[in-house]
Structures are given as C-alpha cells and as structure tokens.
Amino acid sequence: MYERKIPVDLSCPLRLTMSLIDSKWKSCILDELRDTSMRPSELHKALPEATPRVLDLQLKELVDDGLVAKTIYPELPPRSEYSITELGRSLLPILDSMIAWGETNRELFEKKYGM
Amino acid sequence: MYERKIPVDLSCPLRLTMSLIDSKWKSCILDELRDTSMRPSELHKALPEATPRVLDLQLKELVDDGLVAKTIYPELPPRSEYSITELGRSLLPILDSMIAWGETNRELFEKKYGM
DNA sequence: TCATATACTGAAAATTTATTCGGTATACCG
DNA sequence: CGGTATACCGAATAAATTTTCAGTATATGA
C-alpha cells in the first residue's frame, strides 16, 4: 500500500473520519453494501463508472480499516463477497445526512455543475 | 480553476455533497469558521499544517460554492475576512457527526496510524 | 479448442491535488 | 532606507490518486 510522504494529522477526529471515506468510491461502496453483501462483479454493475481495479483497491482498504468484511468461498470459478461491518454501519448515518443534504441542495448546483 | 478531464456524476447526492468537502482542508476550514469569521492569516495560524496557498485556493472554491462568504475591507495593509454562510452552516451537523465518530473510534486506529 | 467468466495483481501512465517558490502592491515602524 | 506584514496570484514541481493494460489461474459451455 502506498505510504504518504506528507503525513496527515489523524489525531484530529474530523480528519480521521474523513480519511476513511474521502476517496473517490469508498462512500459509494459503503452505501451499496448497506442492505446486502455483494460480489465484486455485482458492485461493478452497481457502480459502472468505477473500474474493477479501483473497486478492488478501495475494498482492500475498507477491509483493512475494518469497515467492510470479506468472505472467500473456495470455489471455482472464484467467488468472494463483501459486506459492511458493524463499524462500517456506524458510518451510515453520516452518509445518510450527506445524501439528504445533497438532495435538498441539488438545485443550487445544477447549473454550475451540469447535471 | 482546474477543469476535470474525467467528470464525476454529481447527480448522485452523496457524491455531490462529498465533492464540496472532500479536499484536504475544506472540512477543517468550515469547522474553524463555525463560531467566528477569520482573516486568512488567522486561519493559517489555526491550521498551521496548511500552507497559505492551499488555504487561499480552497477558500476560493468554498466561496464559489456558496459555503463561505468573503468580505474585503478597502484598507492598507489589505484586510479580508471569511465567514461561513447559512448554506455552509447547514453542513456543520454532518461535520459534527464525523467529529463524534472520530472521537468514539479513535482508539481503533491509534496503533495502525501512529497517533 | 476457444471464448467467457470469475477474482485478483503488478506496473506504467494519466489525472488530480497539493506544495513550493517567487512575485504583485502598499503601509507602518525602526 | 530596509525589514515586516498584509492578501493574493502564476507557474513549476511534487505528491497522491485513479486509470489503463496486461497478466495470473481455473471451470463452464459452445
């Protein structure tokens, strides 16, 4: 895993929390896993703009941070499933409030950022 | 301002909200401005790890997105102050929940990320 | 046999973000 | 006069993140 040259002060609780979810797809992955565990290929179907590679990299970090759990089934063709942990689930209220904020204020940004 | 070559789908409310606060210092800036308006030099004292340049760049984006307001006093030496807007203030509950989550779970990450 | 699908990985390239450095301008103070 | 401080900006560089591409291995089905 990449080791930062310029460290971030994670003793700041805001930065600690942000650091766990602020990459491009982590918050979306947690949101997708809220109801059901998913295989990597299913996750890619749910988030088609994310390449399988980046999903793989970010899932690995989420697992490493204890927010997501991975189950490997020793079958062929290979099968694995990712599910949200209790720790990851405890972040969902934060994501919920972000989703609600985004829905409430969407129109303010519609023109500025074409959507 | 830099224009992305690979656009992000901001019609997703989660990604819209994230896009407004997920750069390195924006959430910290909003947190600093919650009680009082600040001059750039004061903000730099409050966040000494952030260079004046990056504060300047991120303040400009925050102003552009309507989360922060800028007041210029036509004095010399120049003086300007940044304050949080009502829109920016409406994000503070989200930051509060991130701060609370980080405080609650800090010990889980203490060893992994030296702090 | 050959294409397909699965999960995953390494490495290089591209993209995005942050840092560093030097410069604008003006007033105050010693 | 020369140093300090203010806010700000352009450009080059560096750092960090994401994308692209090619590859591992094995079973299934046409």
Q: Main β-sheet of chain A: number of strands, strand sense, barrel status?
A: 2 strands, antiparallel
- The helix/strand series of chain A, from N terminus to C terminus, equals HHHHEEHH
The count of helical stretches of chain A stands at 6
Overall form of chain A: globular
**What share of residues of chain A is helical?**
40-55%
Strand content of chain A: 5-15%
Query: Order of strands side by side in the largest beta sheet of chain A?
Result: 1-2
Straight-line N-to-C gap of chain A: 35 Å
> Largest interface by residue count?
A-B, 39 and 39 residues
Quaternary structure state of the chains depicted: homodimer
The stretches of 5 or more residues of chain A where confidence is low (pLDDT under 50) are: none
Mean pLDDT of chain A: 94
Estimated radius of gyration of chain A = 16 Å
**By helix and strand content of chain A, what is the structural category?**
mainly alpha
DSSP E strands of chain A, number = 2
